[in-house]
Each structure stands twice: as structure tokens, then as C-alpha cells.
Amino acid sequence: MYRDKSIGVVIPAYNEEKLIVRVIETLPDYVDQIIVIDDASTDDTVKIVKSCQKHAPNDKIILIMHDVNQGVGGAISDGYKWCRDHKIDIVVVMAGDAQMDPKDLPSLLDPIVEDKTDYAKGNRLFYGNAWNIIPKVRYLGNAALSLLTKIASGYWHVADSQCGYTATSLKVLETIDLDTIYRRYGMPNDLLVKLNIYNFRVKDIPVTPIYNIGEISGIKIERIIFTLFFLLVKLFIWRMKEKYVIRDFHPLIFFYFLAFLLLSISIPLTVKLFAFWIQYGHIPRINSLALMFSLIMGFQSLFFAMLFDMENNKELK
Description:
Layout: E1 7-13, H1 20-25, E2 33-38, H2 45-55, E3 61-65, H3 71-85, E4 90-93, H4 105-113, E5 119-123, H5 130-133, H6 136-153, E6 166-169, H7 170-175, H8 187-197, E7 202-206, H9 221-247, H10 252-280, H11 285-312
Parallel strand pairs: 1-2, 1-4, 2-3, 5-7
Antiparallel strand pairs: 4-6, 5-6
């Protein structure tokens, strides 16, 4: 128990035989349940976790095994379901590769215990030396995805969207349909969008970035960034429909639609402008005026829509 709240830690694990013991053994004593989800590992992860179970008191370590790899989102979803069904007050997610410092746990738990937030999320980019610790490709890819996630999710104050070190209240797990959570690496982005639709409060918590301790990452940010880009576009459209059309209509829909229309029109106008310039050596005046109008009005509508969205979600910090 932590401040009279039961605590569960969900650990998604895929081929984590090197560091899974370190993760389990360094967890504080106030953690009531440790739920390890083995996502069809091909190494000795299961064997090692079962060995840890023998030395843990009162079935503290729960092992859930997948016959088929379901991705990190699928593993976390199953861990969430177990905690929801067993009425765990606060559920923390920590990776099985020891990249999440247990010393940061109180910082994630306290805002939920004090009812200041519903979902606390780690932010590794807060510290000034994060640039020197996190691999450069992952840092830049993370920064780009975080910017897109701000737009897609409506949580404009949230950074480091891909950080999986989180703490969640039981109320969140009982509200969201856990079966619909995205199964792969885009799970944190998908969950943030779902949280916003239900108007849950989300708080960024600075956490220590840990790298080069023997972890092996299967994530290639340069390969998945385009997949996540299209996922975020889909999530953005879905959030607009669910939150601002179906649940409570908001005029920002018109501004986003107008921005999309005008900026789309500017593409063929730009192509036509350069075609005339190359072919005839000059630019038609009406073409340049139309392009300027569509760009200026398009971006102005876009920024107004973002401002409305930001204002509408300012209480969810």
C-alpha cells in the first residue's frame, strides 16, 4: 500500500531475460502486485519470472503468458484488465528492460493519490541532459511524435508522448474500453486520445532517462514514424468526431475543416504557379493572389482551431 492506496505494477516483457530480475527486485515494498505479461518470449524470460515467483510472498508476482506476440499495447492492456478486475487503486506501467527508475514512482503516484490528476505520465525530455543520454534518432523522432500527439490528443501541455512510464487511476481503467487499445508501439498515443475524449486529467512528471544498461530495443523509430503519423491522423479525426460533434458540438470543427480545405487548395495552386514560372518566365497575378489567400486564411483557420482546442482542454492538466 502507498498512502492507503493499493499499487499494481504492470511489466510488459518480450525477451527480457537479461534485466527482468533487476526490474522486479528494485520495486519498492509498497507495491502490492507485480503483473508480468510475457508477450510470447523466445528466451528464458518466463523461466526467470517463475523463479522470482517462488521467492515472492503471497502471490505478489502474477505471470500472464501470451501464446502469440500481441505487441506492447496488447501486453499492457491485459495487465490493465487484471488490475481493473482486482480493483487495484493505482496501476503503474514499467518496461521489462530496467529503463524506468523506481525512485520516480512516488512522483507519479502522489498526484493521483491527492486527486490532482487521473493519469500521470513520465517525461524524459524535461532534464537538460536528455539530449546527451537518449540516442539522437530516438530523441528527434520522439520530439516529432510528441508534437503530432499534442494536436491529435488535445493535451497540449504533454511532452514525450512515447514514454511508457505511467500511473493510472482505477477510474480510468473502468471507463475506457481496454479491448480497443492500440496493440503496438502507438499505444501511448492512442490512450491519450481516449483519455481526452472522456476529459480525464493528465499530468507530465519529470522522470530520469536511463539508457545503455544492456537493454535491447526492438523499436526502429525511423521505420515506425510514418505508421504512427497515419495513426495519429486517424486518431485526430476520430477525436474531433467523438468529442466535438457527437458528445458536445464545438465550432472549432469548422475552423479545422476550413483550414484543411484551403491548405489542400494551395497545393495545386502552388504547382500551377511554378509550372507557369518555368514555362513562361512569369507568374499569373490571379494565381499568386489566390495562393496567398488560401495559405494565409488556411493557416489562420488552423491556428484558431488549435487555440480553441487548447482553451477547451486547459482544465485537463
